[in-house]
Amino acid sequence: MKHFIFLGIFLWALSRGAMGAQGVTYGGPVGGTDIQNAYLPPDPGLYGSFIFVGAYGDKFYDNSGRSPATSVRLPGEIAEFGLLYVYPVKLFGGTLGSSVATGYGWGSITVNGRRQNFNGINDIYTDVLMWSKHLGSFDAGMPRGLTVKLGYSMVIPIGKYNTTDLYTTGQNTYYYIPNAAFTYLTGPNFLGDGTEFSAHFFLDVARKNFATNYKNGLVADVDVAISEVIGRWQVGVAGYYARQFTDDSVNGQPVPGGNRFASAAVGPVVAYNIPECKCSVKFKAQLSVFTRNSLAPNAAYLFFNKAFN
C-alpha cells in the first residue's frame, strides 16, 4: 500500500467528567487510544483533529457489583478540537511532538430521581512532549516491525466546575500522566497489507481538588487494539482496562471502602485514510464489560483528522 499516513492517532481530549464534589475520575484522551498508538507523523508541521462523542450510561456499580441503591441515567455528548505539532528536529533518531485539546460537553444526568442538565467547557488535555522511534523497516511507506513511543501528558483544569452540580464537564484537578506505547505491524498476509498490534500504557497521578480536599487514587490504564490494514482501510477491535491501585482520600484520610475505580470496555474500530486531502476519518465504539465504583460507560466516537503542512 503506497498511501499510508499517520492521522488516525490523534484521539485527544477528556471524556471523563467530575461527579459534583467528589467521585471517580481520571485523566486521559477521548476513549483512550487504539490503532497506531506509538506513531507520530513522519513529517514536521501542524496537524488538527475534530472529535464528536456520544455517550450513555444507566448502570452504576459499587465495590460489590451493580448497586441496587443508586439509579443513574446519563446521556451526553462532547465536541472536541485538538492540535498536534511535530517538531522539525530529531532526538536519538526519534520524532518529537506535542499536542493540546479541549472542547465542549453537554447532556443531562438523573440520580435517584433528581435530574439536572449540564453543559460547559472541558478541561485541557495535553501531550506535553512525545518521542516516537521506529525500530523496524519501511515497506511502501508502511512501518513494518516495532515502533515505540514515550510521553508525558497532563490534564489542566480549566473546565466548568462547581461543588453542587451532580455532574460537571471540568474536574478542578491536575493530572500528571507518564505513558508509553508500542505498535507492531506485520508483513502482508491473506487478510490484507498487515496485522497491527498496539498497546498504550498510562499512569494517572491526581493532585488534590482544593475546592473539596478530595484526592483520587493512582490509576493505571492500558489501551489495546488488534487490526488489519487493507488498502486505505484499517479495521479491528479495540478496548481498554483501567484500575485504581490506591484509595481515594478526603482531608488526608482514606474514604470508607477506598472508592477504588475499575473499568473495561471493548468494541470495533474502523479508519479510512484519504491521502488526497492529507486527512482521515475514523469510527470507534466502546461497550462496557466491567465496572466498579462508577457508572458503566458506553460510547461512540467519530474522528476527523487533517494535516496542515
From TrEMBL:
Keywords: Signal. Residues 1-20 form the signal peptide. It comes from the Bacteria. This is Phenol degradation protein meta.
